[in-house]
């Protein structure tokens, strides 16, 4: 069976991992995430985070990760939910930086 090389990336604020995998030709983004065994690598993260997270390829969100067929060299990224609206976060940082 033919295989292709892909990567799966996941990051927390204090830690990140990039898993290199060989997946069967025709594998989907969701299948690659399952093969990366992220719950084992991040036991402190609820396992449903890895099954429910939005996925993307090189920063571009996938609409249907369970049907998106990977190409050799793709990097599948898992996106965590935002804790705070980015505009609000900037305002908070700016107000904290003022003397």
Structure description:
The protein has 99 residues and is α+β, with helices and mostly antiparallel strands. It has a single domain (3-97), classed as Phosphatidylinositol 3-kinase Catalytic Subunit, Chain A, domain 1 (Ubiquitin-like (UB roll), Roll), CATH 3.10.20.90. 28% of the residues lie in helices and 31% in strands. It has four helices and five strands. The chain has a five-stranded mixed beta sheet, covered by helices on one side. The termini are far apart. The relative contact order is 0.22.
Primary descriptors:
single chain, 99 residues, alpha+beta, Ubiquitin-like (UB roll), five-stranded mixed beta sheet, 4 helices, elongated
In terms of per-residue confidence, which ranges show pLDDT below 50 for 5 or more consecutive residues?
A: none
Oligomer: single chain
Q: SSE string, helix = H, strand = E?
A: EEHHHEEEH
By CATH, the architecture is named: Roll
Relevant CATH superfamily: Phosphatidylinositol 3-kinase Catalytic Subunit, Chain A, domain 1
Distance between the termini: 63 Å
CATH class: Alpha Beta
Number of spatially distinct domains: 1
Helix count, DSSP H or I runs of 4 or more residues: 4
Annotated CATH topology? Ubiquitin-like (UB roll)
Give the biggest sheet. Answer: 5 strands, mixed
Q: What characteristic shape results from the CA principal axes?
A: elongated
How many DSSP-defined strands?
5
Derived from helix and strand composition plus strand pairing, the structural class reads alpha+beta
What's the helical proportion of residues?
25-40%
Rg value: 16 Å
- Beta content comes to 25-35%
């Amino acid at each position: 069976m033919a295989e292709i090389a892909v990567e799966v990336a996941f990051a927390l604020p204090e830690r990140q991992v990039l898993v290199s995998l060989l997946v069967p030709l025709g594998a989907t983004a969701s299948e690659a995430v399952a093969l990366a065994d992220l719950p084992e690598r991040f036991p402190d993260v609820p396992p449903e985070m890895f099954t429910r997270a939005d996925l993307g390829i090189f920063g571009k969100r996938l609409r249907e990760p369970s049907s998106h067929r990977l190409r050799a060299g793709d990097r599948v990224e898992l996106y965590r939910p935002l804790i705070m609206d980015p505009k609000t976060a900037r305002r908070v940082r700016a107000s904290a930086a003022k003397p």
